[in-house]
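SEQUENCE AND FOLD
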Amino acid sequence: MMLALESSEDRKKLEELLAQSVPESMKVYGSIFYINRGNPLNMEVLVDSWPDFKTVICKKRPEEMMDDTNIYINTYNVFTKDPENFRAMLWTTDVINWNQCLLIQGLQQCLNDVIMSIAESKGIEVESEPGVLFVRKIHAKVCEKSPKVNLEEEASAQTSSHLKARDDQPTFQYSAISAAEAEMVNAFWINGGNQNSLKIVRQCIQHLPNLCMRDPGGKPISWFVMDQTAEIRMGYTVPEYRDRGVLTSLFIPFIVSLHLQWDDFPYHFITRKQNVQIHSVAQTVGLRIAPCEYFKSICRPQGRETHIYHRRGFPKSTPTVSSRMCSHLPFTIFRYFIK
């Protein structure tokens, strides 16, 4: 049986220990970062033993995971120091509810191999997909002793010529995404677009950092939302504004704002290997490709139906929404975030 860490002192100690294992621990490190700062999405952290732990799993609390078909809620973030210990935890405990449709994600390919092996033995259908992890320079390698930098100055220097070349653009406005815009974000999320995904989109918008760029008329043109692991995701830019530096212009104030909240914010970004244009944007704003590879494994019991996870197409136009706008850089965009 895995142990739930309920003590705030123990969880803080675990956060410090996981920080020593980034980037491989980034998914659980980001999760416990939020858990230790108000736990806005009602998560729990499980370890095989304490304080000498080997395996960590972060997930929603049991009362949240009642829908057997919702992989967005039935998500497990995993990290281990010992793959055989991880295998034993999955075999000998009920930490994973294999009767549900679920998603397991992490940054150690050896764990994906364990999951595939166990799922096959249980008759579970698995769809696995890799991804490229982008992290802050201080998280790219644990052994790297990077000097403290002023992110605002660094980002400005890296993108000044890029932005100056687009001075003829209309004046854009920044604001947080409102709960009323959750359906818009969900509709254009490449991994969403269904009622199950809408639930987690709403939760993230209401409680976690996000940012939206709007045209002079207030129409959303680009946005992204942070999830419960501190991953920057759910991003989208409307077609007519692509290849104009909009995403870079959105990224910079967002990550600067994160630094103003906490200097050690473990934000990260994951994308597909073939999405080279997004790779370029991530590197432009100072993120680094991590040496470990991201994996997600979508598990489904045979005969169990779930909503489609992978997008087959997008709506043809951006939904019309009403929202309050702010014309200045919003360093208070985290009005819903529990500190």
Q: What stands out?
A: The chain has a mean pLDDT of 84.
